[in-house]
Amino acid sequence: MIFKKEHIFQIKFLFAAAILFSLAISFGATIWGTYILRQELMREREETLELLLKHTAEVLKPHLKLKVRQEISRILEELVQFDFINGARVTWQEPSIYQDIRHFDILLGKKSSPATTTLSVEEGNLNKGKIITFPLRDEKENMGYLEVAVDDGLHQKIIQKAIFNFLLIGFLLSTLLCGILYLYYHFVTMPILDLVNHIKELQEKSKEGNLKLFPKILAPKEIENLILAFNELIRRINVSQENLKNTMKQWRIEAYRAEQASQAKTKFLANVSHEIRTPITTALGMVELLKESPLNSEQREQLSHLEKSLENLKELLNETLDFAKLEEGAVFIKEEPFDLKALLEECFKLFIPQIEKKGLCYEIKIPENLPQFLGDRAKIKQIILNFLSNAVKFTEKGKISLEARPLKKGENFYYWQIMVRDTGRGITKEDLEKIFLPFERLEETFDKFYFGSGLGLAISKRLAKLLGGKLWAESKGPGAGSVFYLEIPLKVCNFDHKTEGSTPEKLSGKVLLAEDNHVNQLYFRKILEKLGLKVTLARDGYEALEKARKDSFDLLLLDIRMPGIDGLEVARTLRQEGYSGPILALTAHVVEEIEKEAQRAGLDGFIVKPITRRELAKYLSKWLS
Amino acid sequence: MGKKILLGTIIGLFLATFKAFPRTLVTIESEKARLTLNLLSRLVRLEKNFQKHLPLRVLVILPQTKSAFQDQNIVNEAIKDFFSENQVFKAVFIRDPKEALNALDRKNFAILYVAGPFPNLGEILKKAAFQKILTVSHLPELLEMGLALSLDLDRRRACIVVNKEIWQILGLNFPPEVIQKFCFVSFQK
């Protein structure tokens, strides 16, 4: 609206300015023209008058010398015939000869009349008009003068006439200009304004279907062309919109189908993941329980092999699922505060037993007094663990080192370079890029079997990119060892964050464990009780609901998938009934959708199976004393 | 008969016009002549010898021109009018300049007035001077030819111009106040 008002104001302003300007030009031209005309007339009159008086003086002089009044009067009468001369008078000092004659008369004894030495003849009216005097010279001596009464009335009339004509022409020109401006406004500006309003109307009603064409109007060819072009554009937009609508319709169908397929895939993955993890969890739990029972050395070795195989299977499953999620684009970056130094040391510590077992040296170089950072701790950990795992796996002698150094330091961020260096097998120049391809393993160069899916570095590279950083490897060739680099930006955490505590050995509290799988019931009950917790067991959702209503618990641990009503439904119902205690989900699912659903249902946390006793203790310490 | 009356009327009107019209015309030259004659009428009365012989006999030479409206005719008519009205002079008009010399020999003229230039004017003026006749004209340019007195209005100070050499021959006797007014011009080379 402001635009419109300003626009109209501009046009009006231009209109008014044009009128004022034309009037000013008219008046200016009138004044100037009149002034020039007056000057010219006056100059011409002066010249004419001077010429006339000069000529008259020349004609008059002989007659004046001889005092021929009749002729002098006649000449003056002729002078008065001019329109601009009202009257004329000549005054002449008579020649000495007349005085001589008078003197002779006196000598002859005549009585002379009083001597009048001056001759003066007048014609017309000398009282009306401006008196102009012209000297009458006889051989450079002033002998008299000719006076004329000049009438300016004639010139005034001419000037008045000129002013009137100038004003009339000016007024006509102004009117013509106004007319042209009005026609311009009507035939050019108005259609453009209408077009603007039409465009605004189209903007407001753009969702109401086809856009309306601009109606045909009487306008100059250029404006008509503009409107034609505009209407052509509208027609094309309408066609495009129609096509877009059809495409969107088709796309929605396709999207619906894709979503259905995706959901089916997700469901399948969830099921597969759940179904594989559950027995692995159970098997690992059982191995852990068995390890605490009295076994001979042969049995203990066999159990160790079993545990290792299960761990490898679990790793393979996790990597496959992670890669699938990365490819799907279903991986999201979380921002949580963490201690980088502690994270790196924690990662390294996990490999120290293996490093020592292989008889390797190790070194950790991380700067002291670092601030807390914000970032996806889990993903950084995953990358570093992958680096270290490879280093330990392919190094038989020498040293493994972990080094971190800030490349750039800003007020709110650090750009970190984290390196894992080993003195292992090394990588050929050609294989340096190959190792980051999925399922790519340098088996032909291996002299013994190394377990792995070939996905670790591929996943790490994708994760580094997701974190806004980069990842690469350097090696001087086979046998020369290798260095793996990770460069990532990390925000500095500006708020206080409680650092993660150490893993508690004992916890206290009353826990409701809802789990339908008998082996899992056994495993979780055992490790929870070992942590010092009092465990009440529920075999399905109904039982969990009933027990949670009847008794009070410090923590509810609900399996997501249970017969009857699942864990999510139990949590939702309890939250609706006003239950305020912590409820954690216990599941073999890893799919994000399930985690989100769990959060919506009112669950406070999400424990992904399989989970070790240590990890479980650390996680539960957040909720239990 | 009627035709004769009409012809007579036309001729009468023509002659009347011829006679009357020039008198009403005034030209610079005629006025000069009139002024010169007025001056002359006063001067002659102031000269001792002329005073005794009034009215003075004046021979007036009037050059003839063919057209009735020529300036000279107007001058001639003005001169004739003057002399006819003036009692101081007794004028004899001669139209043919050839007769002038004979006229100067035959009659006793006191003054010769030249109304205009003509072929043998120098001879006439010489003869007039020899006979001690005062020669006068309104044409000052004739002084150089031997004219005795004229009026020069074209000069810065208009005055009575007198030919010094001729004047000495004439031996005229004017009062000193009058002589004082004259402008004597010598034409002797």
Description:
The complex is a heterodimer of chains A (625) and B (189). Chain A has 625 residues and is α/β, with parallel strands linked by helices. Among the domains of chain A are: 5-158, Beta-Lactamase (2-Layer Sandwich); 340-492, Histidine kinase-like ATPase, C-terminal domain (Heat Shock Protein 90), CATH 3.30.565.10; 510-620, Rossmann fold (3-Layer(aba) Sandwich), CATH 3.40.50. Chain A has helices at 2-65, 69-80, 96-107, 153-204, 221-291, 297-328, 340-358, 377-394, 431-434, 456-466, 518-530, 541-550, 567-576, 592-600, 613-620, and strands spanning 85-93, 118-124, 130-138, 141-150, 336-338, 361-365, 373-375, 399-409, 413-422, 470-475, 482-492, 510-514, 534-538, 555-559, 583-587, 605-608. In chain A, the strands form three sheets. In chain A, strands 5, 6, 7, 8, 9, 10 and 11 form a seven-stranded mixed beta sheet that branches. Chain A is rod-shaped and about 195 Å long. The relative contact order of chain A is 0.06. In chain B, helix 2 runs parallel beside helix 4 (71-85) and helix 5 packs parallel to helix 6. Chain B has one domain (27-185): Rossmann fold (3-Layer(aba) Sandwich), CATH 3.40.50. Chain B starts with a helix and ends with a strand. Chain B has 189 residues and is α/β, with parallel strands linked by helices. Chains A and B meet through helix 1 and helix 3 of A and helix 2 of B.
Multimer state: heterodimer
CATH class of chain B: Alpha Beta
Assign the CATH class of the domain at 5-158 in chain A: Alpha Beta
- Report the order of strands and helices of chain B: HHHEHEHEHEEEHHE
